[in-house]
Design goal:
Layout lengths: L1 H25 L7 H13 L3 E4 L6 H11 L4 E5 L7 H4 E7 L6 E7 L6 E5 L6 H4 L3 H6 L1 E4 L2 E4 L5 E6 L12 H4 L4 E4 L5 H11 L13 H13 L4 H12 L10 H6 E3 L3 H17 L7 H12 L4 E2 L1 H5 L4 H11 L8
């Protein structure tokens, strides 16, 4: 038993060390955005997808591509547009002729989804039919074309961006697809000092190369360790309580939930609260999950799963406000974990 515990501690320590190396490489090209960077890294180690909302020019693409280079993963970027078709993402079958025999056969041409990291840039600019082409890939890590299922290479992540400024010609993501994203993150403008540093570095000709410090198989091993990390029952119950009390129909839902929320968080929210908390603990080098780990991921896990009603919108109450009040209203277990 002692050797198993020692091995577990060593595995957890390696995860923390891997995060330190990855962050050091990303910091060569990304300035600031501490919370966003750490959340994206946590999602990678947990095996989840991310939805990132922010205005153009805030280094969303650079962050994701840099992470791919640091972990030695294949990276593909797709610019979503109104004329993009599902086959432009998943791939399609084409008729090919064998020059030696003259026979014609259908051959599958893989689309950009066949990669490790797919950046779906401005995903809200393409119609729902094309958005839905990612659902199977995000959930089952496979693609079905003409009745044939093709598995995707592991690890596989979808990181989608949204532009909150221009709303003309956009197609808001349906709730069912937003639910597939583990985290919903907001990336904002840099403080003045950090912006000055970015301009100085990007106009001074000093370019630092990102060095691969981790391989895909090592990341998969880390994900397996995180999945096996034990969680105390009070922590599990706290995560489930947070998600369930965001639902207006729940008998113990707070009054403000019944007043301002149309639909609360799904069962998948409870799953990601626990999985995200496990990743937080492992990345911090701890073999146990605390209540604070659950609270630290509550905002990115819940904000896109809570649908506010007209009453809330008329008063300017956003999902972030609902999540904050929910965290304040749900008491911690008496054990105080």
């Amino acid at each position: 038993m002692a050797s198993d515990i020692s091995l577990s501690e060593q595995s957890i320590a390696r995860i923390g060390e891997a995060q330190t190396r990855i962050l050091a490489e990303i910091r060569k090209v990304i300035v600031g955005q501490e919370d966003v960077v750490r959340d994206v890294v946590a999602a990678f180690f947990a095996g989840g997808n991310c939805l990132i909302t922010g205005v153009p020019g805030l280094a969303k693409t650079l962050l994701i591509s840099s992470l791919g280079r640091a972990i030695d993963l294949k990276f593909r970027r797709v610019q979503f547009t109104p004329d993009l078709m599902p086959s432009d993402i998943t791939g399609t079958e084409v008729l090919e002729e064998d020059r030696t025999t003259g026979k014609r056969n259908m051959s599958f041409r893989p689309g950009p989804v066949f990669t490790n990291i797919l950046l779906a840039d401005e995903i809200n600019r393409t119609p729902p039919k094309t958005q839905a082409a990612l659902l199977e890939a995000m959930q089952e890590h496979q693609v079905t074309v003409s009745g044939v299922t093709y598995p995707l290479e592991e690890p596989f992540f979808v990181l989608a961006t949204q532009n909150p400024i221009e709303q003309e010609g956009t197609y808001p993501l349906p709730a069912v697809q937003q639910d597939r994203f583990m985290f919903s993150l907001y990336i904002d403008y840099l403080p003045r000092g950090e912006e000055v540093r970015v301009i100085n570095e990007t106009t001074g000709g000093r370019v630092q190369d990102i060095v691969c410090c981790m391989h895909g198989q090592e990341l998969l091993d880390c994900q397996n360790v995180i999945m096996q990390l034990p969680v105390a029952e009070p922590v599990l119950r706290y995560a489930v309580t947070l998600a369930s009390r965001s639902r207006p129909a729940h008998p113990e839902a707070p009054a403000f939930i019944r007043e301002y929320v149309s639909w609360g968080a799904s069962l998948r929210a409870s799953h990601y609260l626990v999985l995200g908390a496990k990743a937080r603990a492992a990345l911090a080098g701890r073999p146990h999950v605390s209540l604070d780990d659950v609270r630290s991921v509550a905002m990115p896990v819940l904000r896109h799963r809570i649908v506010t009603n007209f009453h809330a919108e008329s008063q300017g109450i956003k999902p972030d406000t609902i999540v904050k009040r929910l965290l304040e209203s749900v008491p911690a277990p008496k054990s105080g974990l």
